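Team,

Forwarding the record for the chain on the shared tracking sheet. I've put the sequence and predicted structure together so nobody has to dig through attachments.
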Amino acid sequence: MSKKQNRAGIKKWPRGIWSYLWRRGWWRRIAFIILAIIVVFTSAMYGIAQWYIHKHADQPITLGATFIPDYAESFGLDPRDTLNAMLSDLKLKQVRLVSYWEDIEPTPGHYDFSQLDWQFALAAKYHAKVSLSIGLRQPRWPECHSPGWVTIDPKNEAAWRPQLNQFIEAVVRHYKTNPALQDYELENEFFLKVFGQCTDFSRSRLIEEYNLVKGMDTNHPVIVSRSDNWVGIPVGQPTPDEFAISVYKRVWDATFTHRYFEYPLPAWFYASLAGSEELLSGKDMIIHELQAEPWTPKGLEITQTSVKEQYKSMNPKRLKDRIDYGEATGMKTIDLWGAEWWYYMKVKQHNPDVWNTVKQAVQQADAHNAQLAKS
């Protein structure tokens, strides 16, 4: 066969395949169209992911962690010791703190910031920045942390929304001039209806609260977060200063298999979500919760399971792989989820392996950032 004939055959080959598939029946046509759409969509997502990763490649990495004193106490830990160790030993430069409504305003109009104040003071002592969770919905079960004197009824918003706004105003007013404050995270995973004991998901409330905070404090960014593993990007109001996403990889499937399940999503999937959001709104995205503690079976607390069982969903190797996975998304701010468990393993179980894994990751991030600063 001549070169000219060979080139002609190559040109005809795609058309031949198309003709063959298109003439084999309507169901083959539909299947082919669906496959083509999937290929095009996946290719576009991958392309956006690589653009995002490349664009942010020269930016420093910030590894932080969420800290909740009530959760530390559930492990039999002293909250002050726990946070102090996170900042002094792990040398975290960022910590996400919570401002539970039920803790700060136990009775109407009476605010107690003492517990949160000492956390801010510790952060300032170690030159760490605070990302402050505010609003009704904040990290950890039951997600919505309203005081007992409030009934959250979506059908009677006038009975509680003014009180919630007053509470948010009090928190912002108290901390907006604190030098340790870096940003606010408003209403953690607000639209996640399938998890938590929350009843109100009104977008108008989220918009109102966002405008309230921005009206009181123009110096600090406001973050709005979404849940993980869902295709799609936030398009409705409000458009915050920055978006956040949670990343959980290995969970206990209580619905179908009743086994541990690992989401097969590659790191570039999350990069594509961050990149798509940046292209659409010009706003960046961070990981505000990267799974770094066990997901226990059958709704059991971590302390109700053996270390062997805990290690089925999170152990030192999985933890290192998870941090590497988070960094591979291209997002440069990563708050790890489960610091209280690491400290529990270290001081109560006399097993410092997961603690040291995080410590090494922070050291590597610091070394990476130092190298960037030199270049």
